[in-house]
Amino acid sequence: MDARFAAIAEQLLLIERELRVQGWWDDVSPSAEALSSVEPFSVDTLDFHQWLQWIFLVRMKQILEQDLPLPKVSGILEMAEMVYAERPQESLGLRAELKKFDQLITDAG
């Protein structure tokens, strides 16, 4: 097991918490079609917060639960900065949590 798993699991919970605090957490899943997008961040079918909730968090939890290799790089913060460029204060907490996630992934472990 990768030594970073516990810290990453905690960080995923903090990302989820921030999505909920901001009101960016959906109770209803997008359609199967929307979730099956092949575009990066599903930009053609999902809002960024939906991608975080329904794709990113789900996949990362699967990686941790199944003891799979972690990604080698993460650039989620860069995408968040583009998406929330017009809402810097509102997205500050989420961007901070995503930055910590990116750092955990790029740390050597």
Automatic annotation (TrEMBL):
Q: Which terms under GO biological process does the entry name?
A: single-species biofilm formation
Q: Which InterPro entries match?
A: UCP006257 (IPR007384), YqcC-like_dom (IPR023376), YqcC-like_sf (IPR036814)
Q: Could you tell me which residue ranges the YqcC-like domain spans?
A: 8-104
Give the source's domain of life in one word.
Bacteria
Q: What is this protein called?
A: Pseudouridine synthase
Recorded source organism is Pseudomonas helleri
